[in-house]
Specification:
- The chain is mainly α and 162 residues long.
- Helix content is 70%, strand content 2%.
- It contains five helices and two strands, in the order αβααβαα.
- It starts with 15 loop residues before the first helix and ends with a helix.
């Protein structure tokens, strides 16, 4: 979490100790969500095979959900007085998601890779939810709200596995 050029808000929402713990958890999830959106776009561009169109379109729907989620998390970090870090190097260094294959990927493999990446991101969200209750119920509630549609998307992606 970067404190460079940190504004000095006169009215802090949380104590400095809680702010650091909460924003660290949020930053961790921001990194995963940004990487998930990039991974999903890579899959969207390079999927091929039977049922291409339905997977291609579904990936765009998931991407929209993930991008909205990452924006919400980043703005929550800023609301708490810290700078969100979505730089490519930060994402590459800190993500928990696996790498996506190069080149074109058939539908079955795409579905598996996407489901695995989504599960990793959801695990990170749920881990943070477990820790946020006592620290900041507003951030906890936000991550719960982000997790629900991602879990629904995961169900729909997994339903396509053969």
């Amino acid at each position: 979490m970067t404190t460079a050029n940190k504004p000095q808000f006169q009215r802090n929402i949380l104590s400095s100790v809680k702010t650091e713990k909460v924003t660290d958890l949020l930053q961790h999830n921001l990194t995963n969500l940004i990487d998930l959106a990039l991974l999903l776009k890579q899959a969207h561009w390079n999927v091929f095979g039977s049922n291409f169109r339905s997977v291609h379109v579904h990936l765009d729907e998931i991407i929209a959900t993930v991008r909205d989620a990452s924006d919400e998390v980043a703005e929550r970090i800023a609301t708490l007085g810290m700078a969100a870090d979505g730089r490519s190097r930060t994402v590459a260094d800190a993500t928990e998601l696996g790498t996506y294959p190069d080149g074109f990927v058939d539908v079955a493999s795409t579905v598996t890779h996407v489901a695995d990446a989504m599960k990793s991101a959801i695990d990170g969200l749920r881990n943070a939810i477990d820790k946020l209750g006592d620290l900041d119920p507003i951030s906890e509630d936000m991550l719960i709200g982000i997790s629900a549609p991602l879990e629904k998307h995961l169900w729909m992606v997994q339903a396509q596995e053969e």
